[in-house]
Every structure is written in structure tokens, then in C-alpha cells.
């Protein structure tokens, strides 16, 4: 399986996605630093312009990193799987003496592994930058995390896994509609569903919702694999 994953990375030129992820990480780091320490989130009177419950720095960090990498996951799934079906390049992969299900699982894992690592490292970079700067400069947002706590890293890993796994919902829609565009659009819709506020309520702060969402995403991943042995190419 590891060899298949590496083959997928090589075949799809993973280097360009690494450069893209690095650029996203740098831009998010600069933006969130400015948000916290340069006053761009403040009103004219200097007070923070934020909804109740979002006046802590972890709120914008989780929001913007989740948005960026859920979209990237959707884009990569569209390229690795949906477009491969449409362009019939999947024919070559299916000609190998390997079960189709195993090939598709390797493609899904190639995308999942890359984005999980990229999202985790991006969050660590941003949290480390904010933590360091908060020691020498006051922040507009309350600093609500401690990088010396084990629970910080556990939550960071779990949240990253949930966000990237959501991409399998977008993959199922893309395969069902035979459209790369549908995969990416669904990623945007998932962001609005999971990150938007309705008054003071948001699913992003729910304790139960991430577990339910992960279970649903895995169900959609399984559905994407259903009938793959006899599925016609798009």
C-alpha cells in the first residue's frame, strides 16, 4: 500500500502540491499574525470586532486553516480520482494486477495523508508563531492554548483528521455526478455547513458534531468504493 501511495504522489506530481501547501501556510501565518497583533480585527475604538465565543485566537486559526485545507483536499481528490476517471487515465491503473478497490484506497490515502500532514504542520507553525509573539506583544485575541500541554496536541491532531476526512463526502458527490467541479464545490459547501455561525450557534464548537461528521465521512468513503470492481469508467 505504501508503494501505491508513493506511486500516486509521483504520478500526480506531489511537488506542486507541497509548494502550494507551503505557500498557503506562509500566507495564513502572516494573515493570522496581523489579525492578532496588528489590530486589523479591531473596531475604530480599538476593541475587538468578534462574535461571542470567537474572541479567542484559536477560533480564527481553526476557521481559516480548516477552510484552506478542506478545499485543497477537495481539489486533490478531484485530480487524483475524479479527473482520472474522466480522462480515462484510470484505465492504466486498472490494468495492473492489483484489485481496483486497493488502487482507489491508495489514491484516497495518498490525498488524506498529505493533507493531514500539511494541515497539522500549518497549525503548528501558526500556533508557534502566535505563542512566541504573545510573549512580547499584546494580542487582540485572548490566547486560549498552551503548547506545553499534551491535550493541545491531541486536539490538534483530532481536529485535523476530522477536517481532512470530510473530503470523502466531496469525493462521493464528485464520483456520483462524474464531475471534478462538483467535488470542489461540495468542499466549499462543507465549509459553510461546519464553520458558519447561526446567531451564537456554530457546529465548529460542538463537542459531538466532529465525531458524527467523521463517522458520516467514513460512510461516504465506503460508498465511494462500492461496486468499484464492476464500475464503468466515466
Report helical residue fraction.
55-70%
Structural class: mainly alpha
Distance between the termini: 25 Å
What Rg do the Cα atoms give? 19 Å
**What number of domains?**
1
Largest sheet: 2 strands, antiparallel
Oligomer class: single chain
- Overall pLDDT level: 83
Specify the number of helices.
9
Strands of the widest sheet, in order across it, are 1-2
| SSE ordering | HHHHHHHHEEH
Shape: elongated
- Could you tell me the number of beta strands? 2
Strand content: under 5%
Low-confidence stretches: none
Describe the protein.
By secondary structure, the protein is mainly alpha-helical. The chain has one domain (2-225). It is built from nine helices and two strands. It has helices spanning 2-11, 14-37, 58-86, 90-94, 100-134, 150-165, 167-177, 180-195, 209-225; strands at residues 197-198, 201-202. Strands 1-2 form a two-stranded antiparallel sheet. The longest helix is centred in the middle third of the chain and has 35 residues, at 100-134. It is elongated, with a radius of gyration of 19 Å. The two termini are 25 Å apart. The relative contact order is 0.15.
Amino acid at each position: 500500500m505504501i508503494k501505491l501511495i508513493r506511486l500516486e504522489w509521483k504520478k500526480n506530481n506531489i511537488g506542486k502540491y507541497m509548494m502550494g501547501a507551503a505557500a498557503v501556510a506562509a500566507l495564513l501565518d502572516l494573515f493570522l499574525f496581523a489579525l492578532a497583533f496588528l489590530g486589523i480585527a479591531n473596531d475604530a475604538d480599538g476593541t475587538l470586532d468578534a462574535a461571542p465565543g470567537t474572541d479567542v485566537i484559536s477560533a480564527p486559526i481553526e476557521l481559516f486553516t480548516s477552510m484552506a485545507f478542506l478545499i485543497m483536499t477537495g481539489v486533490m481528490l478531484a485530480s487524483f480520482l475524479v479527473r482520472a476517471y474522466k480522462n480515462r487515465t484510470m484505465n492504466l491503473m486498472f490494468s495492473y494486477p492489483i484489485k481496483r478497490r486497493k488502487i482507489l484506497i491508495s489514491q484516497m490515502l495518498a490525498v488524506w495523508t498529505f493533507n493531514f500532514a500539511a494541515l497539522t504542520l500549518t497549525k503548528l507553525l501558526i500556533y508557534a508563531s502566535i505563542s512566541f509573539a504573545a510573549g512580547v506583544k499584546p494580542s487582540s485575541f485572548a490566547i486560549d492554548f498552551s503548547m506545553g500541554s499534551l491535550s493541545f496536541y491531541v486536539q490538534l491532531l483530532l481536529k485535523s483528521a476530522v477536517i481532512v476526512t470530510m473530503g470523502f463526502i466531496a469525493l462521493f458527490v464528485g464520483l456520483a455526478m462524474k464531475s471534478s467541479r462538483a467535488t470542489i464545490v461540495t468542499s466549499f459547501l462543507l465549509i459553510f455547513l461546519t464553520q458558519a455561525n447561526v446567531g451564537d450557534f456554530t457546529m465548529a464548537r460542538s463537542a459531538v458534531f466532529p465525531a458524527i461528521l467523521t463517522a458520516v465521512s467514513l460512510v461516504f468513503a465506503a460508498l465511494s468504493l462500492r461496486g468499484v470492481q464492476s464500475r464503468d469508467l466515466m
